[in-house]
Specification:
With 221 residues, this protein is of the alpha/beta class. It is 20% helix and 23% strand. It has a single domain, classed as Collagenase (Catalytic Domain). Strands 2-1-6-7-5-3-4 form a seven-stranded mixed β-sheet, covered by helices on one side. Strand 6 and strand 7 form a beta hairpin. The chain is globular. The structure holds zinc ion.
């Protein structure tokens, strides 16, 4: 059993930009006799499943290593709070259904976790706020690397929400929504549905029905 492996790069920001490169062809590194997860029913509307590739993790919880390297000591607790809220935001929104299984295990110690999230000391390409590199086979996600820039809201009350919102968009890619929603109202639109106009809103309310139903499509078969 073999499958091609692709690496996609996603940028989030005022100038959102997508680059695609095929980097390798490798054997499927997963046991073929393990049945994939079925966490949801297919077909819930609205969704933008026809506008994106959908991939999935074979099992949960998924380990994630968070490296807050350049963040000063005085801001570490706030950064941890915001990033962790964003990592768990999809499970929070879906807590009565698939959210119970859709879990990440966060570590701040270097390890071989399949997902890494690191804060960049400098600006990202195209001034993006976040980038996710996703590596996957025909169906299954192998690993993901998230890079975030430092928040523009470090000296404001919106820092936690801004970090949660940005992180949650990138986690949407990590969970398997490969491409962006065509609707600017969705969290998974290219620029995200957050910013000054939504900075007062609870981050979980910015995951739309369309975002959540699209994720359900990735785990329904
Ligand atoms: Zn994105």
């Amino acid at each position: 059993m073999s499958a091609s492996s692709f690496r996609f790069r996603y940028l989030l920001g005022l100038l959102c930009h997508i680059a695609l490169a095929q980097v390798a062809c490798t054997p499927l590194p997963l046991s073929p006799d393990r049945a994939p997860l079925i966490l949801a029913d297919c077909g819930a509307q609205p969704n933008f499943a026809s506008a994106t590739q959908l991939k999935r993790w074979q099992s949960f919880p998924v380990d994630i290593y968070v490296d807050l390297g350049p963040i000063p000591e005085t801001l570490l607790d706030v950064y941890r709070e915001g990033v962790e809220r964003g990592i768990h935001l999809w499970a929070e929104a879906l807590q009565r259904t698939m959210g119970r299984l859709l879990q990440f295990r966060v570590s701040y110690s270097p390890n071989a976790a399949p997902v890494t999230l690191s804060l960049s000391a400098g600006p990202l390409l195209e001034n993006a706020m976040g980038i996710t590199e996703l590596t996957f086979t025909d169906e299954l996600i192998v690993n993901a690397k998230i890079k975030l820039t430092r928040s523009h809201y470090e000296r404001t009350p919106f820092l936690v929400n801004d970090l949660a919102n940005t992180t949650a968009h990138e986690i949407g890619h990590v969970l398997g929504i490969v491409d962006h929603s065509p609707s600017s109202e969705d969290k998974m639109s290219a620029a995200g549905n957050f910013g000054v106009h939504n900075q007062d809103q609870d981050p979980v309310s910015l995951l739309t029905a369309s975002d959540l139903n699209t994720l359900r499509e990735a785990y329904c078969r």
